[in-house]
Amino acid sequence: MRRFPYLMAWRETRGSWRHFVFFFISIALGVSALVSVSLFASNLQGAIQREARNLMAADIEVRTTRPLTKDGLAVLEELKTKGIAQVHVSELIAMTAAGARSQLVELKAVEPGYPFYGNLRTEPDGALALLFAGPNVLVEESLVIRLNKKIGETVKIGQAELRIVGILRKEPDRAAGAFSLGPRALISQDALAATRLVQPGSRITNRYLLKLPQSVGADVLQAELAQRFSDKAVRVRHYQDAQPMLRRFLRQLTTYLGLVGIIALLVGGIGVATNIRAFLKEKLETIAVLKVLGATPRNILQIYLLQTVLLGLLASCAGALLGAGLQFALPPLMRQWLTMDLEFHLMPMPVARGIMMGVLTTTLFALWPLLEARRLRPNLIFRKDVAAVSSQSPTLAVWIVIGAVACALAGLALWEADSWRAAGLFIGALAVAFGVLHVTASAMIRGARGLPRFQSLMWRQAVSSLHRPGSQVRTVVVSLGVGVMVILALYLVERNLLWEIGENVPKDAPSYFFIDIQPDQEHAFARLLAEHGQQNVALTPLVRSRLSAINSEIIQPEGREKQEHGWYFTREYVLTFQQDLPKGNVLLKGQWWGREQDAFHDPAEIKVSVEEEAARHLGLELGSSVEFDIQGTIVKATVTSLRKVDWGNMSTNFYFIFQPGALTGAPMTYVATAHVAPGEEVALQQAVVAAFPNVSAINIRDILDSVGRVVDRISLVIRLMAILAILAGLIVLAGSLASGRYQRIYDAMILKSLGAHRRTLAAMFLAEYSLLGTAAGLVGALLATILSWGVVYWIFDVSWLFQPLATAFGIVATVVITVGVGVLSTFRILGLKPLPVLRQE
Predict the structure, then answer these.
(1) Contacts by 248-254 with C-beta closer than 8 Å and gap 24+?
(2) How far apart are alpha carbons 37 and 47 in whole angstroms?
(3) Model confidence over 444-493: pLDDT tens digits?
(4) Per-residue pLDDT tens over the stretch 384-396
(5) Rounded distance, CA 396 to CA 89, Å?
């Protein structure tokens, strides 16, 4: 008797496998999404760990955005006596010119010995050695194309004429980011000195790469250097911490993709519940016979639960194999951010976790209908009085199962997201979506009952099918609605971001930013712009600094970088001083300084205005004191006002603005903006490059195009996974319609026997599927609109624009897909003969 449940479960599975096709596909799709993302993330993490030294090109990196102090240089000199090799790397933005053409470039200057680790690939091979043989430069291929130059010809960078000696193909330590301001140009430190681009206040990142002998431990030296550098602007990084921005970006992206995969799996879980419920309806007589012959409710539960777990395991294994193949689709889409070559391995943990999550999801969603079937009474089944049973209220056991489902899904999301916040937001949003969809479906059923009878047979039968016994409204609206919500919300968010950064640019937004203007060039640069039609040009002073203390409490950067919003404490701040409140700034609290009564007099009473978000995260209020480290000099100020800043106006905006005169004597540069007609851009840029080689011209239009391409690429990666979610929804839809196939056959044969034609039956089915698709599309589109608004407003903090065409297209596409799937799943019904079917009844 102990073997009976196992034998019966295997027999039922063999004899009824066709009933579980949609069940199988639903779970396989969800598991494949999870496994593909997990395998990709694991392989990526493994590649980063394997190539950690290559990603930094050193064992230890000392990074600073300003020149090292004498004490800092002395520390580096002392390291040389211990056999520690060093290479100085400088990175900055500059302009390169060739004849009448000019181009913004990301300039990188290195010393002989670079890189310590990793391969720098050039064309021809070995061109790196030529870099130190004279005033030479290695450039990316895109730069020679834009400047119409060839290897061996010269370009001008700053005050220096440099000869192109090769094409730069790959740098091991290039900082990976979402976009770059221009092509890379690689030169020597001697060539950088010849360009005369390094001026006081210029924006330059200095990296000192250290290669350690085996006798020196990297961990010990990192801790020692962190203590010895008194300048808090200096960051000492271990090679295991290389590329923190790349790591954070990829971690966030894979976390999000993993949550989208869970949505696909949960939608598949709805398909499991639907298929199990439909299968049990067909097996009611079998269950009744088993009970009459002495089978206990426990035996019934064991038989069909074993069958479900077996099918879930097989579907999960198939999904894991599919996911292992899908992971190869992600790297080509993310190649822009990957600085290393990935080697793919079939790691056991992601595969095992995906299979476990698939089996657990299958079991949890199958328990509810299985527990209901356990309570069925044989005498009611034999009398075909099943409706009374199905309408019974859920028992305590069923509610316990519901609680177990919710807790298990929360645990699955936490496991996949590795973040309480991400998992909480995910579970909350999903719970609201399921609740709203379920309530909407119930309201639709009740509303259909209350509608008056239509004269048209087609519409009368279509509306009646919404509230008849065995109606598929709840399943279709919930499963397809969730899929529509996910993919449409992603598309709406993408469209809003592109609109914000491109089409929503203010009409008076500048077309050019000119940076690194030196103080002695201020008036000459303004005259140059005036000669080219730029009147009333305002040059804004910039002073680079680090936050030193708040309310006299010294800020310790260690540990802040890993905190949420910790970058407010560790970032470099660009300060300025202005007399008038800038455009796009609204005073929220306090008072702005006047022109005479609040003029700067006492260095001990410096006033500063703070942007509201920075003030909130830093804990600043009116009257708070804040101290900045400017090239080793501490400047203390009192917060006298809080501002709201419109960051989207494309103007020069700041977190901190000082009163005029407060930063006199600090090393500074100027930034200028210009509104240039498209036809005059080239002429102005050429004039600036010729007269001021150290000044970089940033074309806002090019930057917006670059950001748009990035958003497109990221959204493509996300949509790849979201498509799996909606595909799972379509499979569930097909399974749901197929599960009611026998009821539809019976209804159709009755109507045929009464004289209905194929055309009439087809019209009825089309009307019913149209109603179901419209309901799912409307609710899903509404939820997608609300979700996209929340993401755009609360996460990205940008203005939201309603997209009626995209929303309408989503609704229409849902209706078309629902009708298409419905017709395909019930097409054979139209050709059946009434007599054989009715005889079976």
Answers:
(1) 249/176, 249/178, 249/337, 250/41, 250/44, 250/334, 250/337, 251/41, 253/334, 253/714, 253/717, 254/37, 254/40, 254/41, 254/44
(2) 15
(3) 888 877 777 776 767 777 777 777 766 677 777 777 787 777 778 777 87
(4) 444 444 444 556 7
(5) 68
